[in-house]
Amino acid sequence: MAKLMISLIVFTLVFSSFLIIGTNASSTVVEGPSESEQVVTVGSGDTLWSIASSFKNGSDIGYLVFSIKNRNNLDNVTIHPGQKLIIPDI
C-alpha cells in the first residue's frame, strides 16, 4: 500500500512538472509589427547579421542584431529559412 501511495505521489509530481513546463513554453508570443516596423522572411544562408546589415541605416549593426533578437523573442542568433522576423524601427 505504501509503495502504491509513493508511486502515485511521484506520478503526480512528474505530471504537474510537465504541465508547468508546457504552459511556460507558450508565453513567448511576439506582438505583431507596428506600422513603422518591417517583416522579413529568412532566406537560405541568411543570418541575423546579414539581415541587420540590410537595414543598418547608419546604426551600429551589433545593436540592430540585439534589437531584432529581442523584438522577436529569440534565445540566440539561430534563424531558419521561412521564418518571419520583425525588424524594429531604430
Summarize the structure.
With 90 residues, the protein is mainly alpha-helical.
Descriptive notes:
By secondary structure, this protein is mainly alpha-helical. The chain has a domain at 38-87: LysM domain (Membrane-bound Lytic Murein Transglycosylase D, Chain A). 47% of the residues lie in helices and 9% in strands. A two-stranded antiparallel ribbon has the order 1-2. α2 (48-54) packs across α3. The protein is elongated. The N and C termini lie far apart (64 Å). The mean pLDDT is 86.
What's the helix and strand layout?
Blueprint: H1 2-25, E1 38-41, H2 48-54, H3 61-71, E2 84-87
Antiparallel strand pairs: 1-2
Strand content: 5-15%
Q: How many strands?
A: 2
Give the terminus-to-terminus CA distance: 64 Å
Helix-residue proportion: 40-55%
- The shape, in one word, is elongated
Assembly context of the chains = single chain
InterPro entries: LysM (IPR018392), LysM_dom_sf (IPR036779)
Protein name: LysM domain-containing protein
Domain LysM: 38-87
What descriptors fit this protein?
about 90 residues, mainly alpha, Membrane-bound Lytic Murein Transglycosylase D, Chain A, two-stranded antiparallel sheet, 2 strands
